[in-house]
């Protein structure tokens, strides 16, 4: 009998809890706070040196909390866990996207990505006419017979010249007996960097003779557009982009404005502006933290 009474009391108690929960939900605003997994946001762990006092950790937590709240971030969760400060920030700093009127002509891809905008159609057409695909050297690396040996690479306009000079500067150097590299004969440059050691001078000389340079190239879109133009692994990819470009007259642009009213960039496509708003919002939060 007592067991039955206890069971009914448990059922009634659970029923009261469910009823109270429903009343709370229906009687209040239906706007649940979304966590990082639903709304997106930033999660950061800041680690202090071991032995940092609890008072110092709490002061640091309060300073971060004050900075983050100044940005208007909703429901920040900032807590101290030993010598770590856990920061979870749902959402982003309050930035905005402004639609602004403009009069310009832009070289655009099908997805509205801009590769240069100009105040007049004539200027845009002129820049469009300079577009072409060129093969450019991305880097030049020294290579040898030993695939496991790491050789230096060079970039820039003089990469080929610099790589060849580096190969010429590598010589066969006899090592003292008992050296850390095991002695013998090593390929060595003027900075004393070594690129393989060998038991005999002839073996080292053979490895030296096998040294050469290998260039990595890319097919790049070039032209006098004033914008950064992309490169591709193949010429066909670069040519496909070039063939898909056209000059478009634009009357509006979408500009990302930070919470402190700084312009962070303008875009022809509002979706691209939204992506930049999210990126810069997270970046600003991390900088503040």
Can you describe what's shown?
With 289 residues, this protein is of the alpha+beta class. The chain is built from 8 helices and 14 strands. The chain has helices spanning 2-27, 36-39, 54-70, 121-128, 159-169, 201-209, 235-244, 270-288; strands spanning 41-47, 77-81, 84-90, 96-108, 114-118, 132-143, 153-154, 171-175, 184-188, 194-198, 212-222, 231-232, 246-257, 263-267. It has a 4-stranded antiparallel β-sheet. The chain has a 4-stranded antiparallel β-sheet with strand order 7-6-11-12, with helices on both faces. Strands 1-3-2 form a 3-stranded antiparallel β-sheet. Strand 4 (96-108) and strand 5 (114-118) form a beta hairpin. The two termini are 62 Å apart. Mean pLDDT is 81; it is low at 1-39.
Characteristics:
single chain, 289 residues, alpha+beta, four-stranded antiparallel sheet, 33% strand, flat, disordered N terminus
Give me the side-by-side strand order of the main sheet.
Answer: 5-4-13-14
Global structural class = alpha+beta
Task: Indicate the multimeric state.
Answer: single chain
| Beta strand % | 25-35%
Number of helices: 8
Largest sheet: 4 strands, antiparallel
Order of helices and strands: HHEHEEEEHEEHEEEHEEHEEH
Q: Indicate the mean pLDDT.
A: 81
Total DSSP E strands: 14
Principal-axes geometry comes out as: flat
- Unreliable runs: 1-39
In which range does the helix fraction lie?
Answer: 25-40%
Span between N and C termini? 62 Å
Radius of gyration: 32 Å
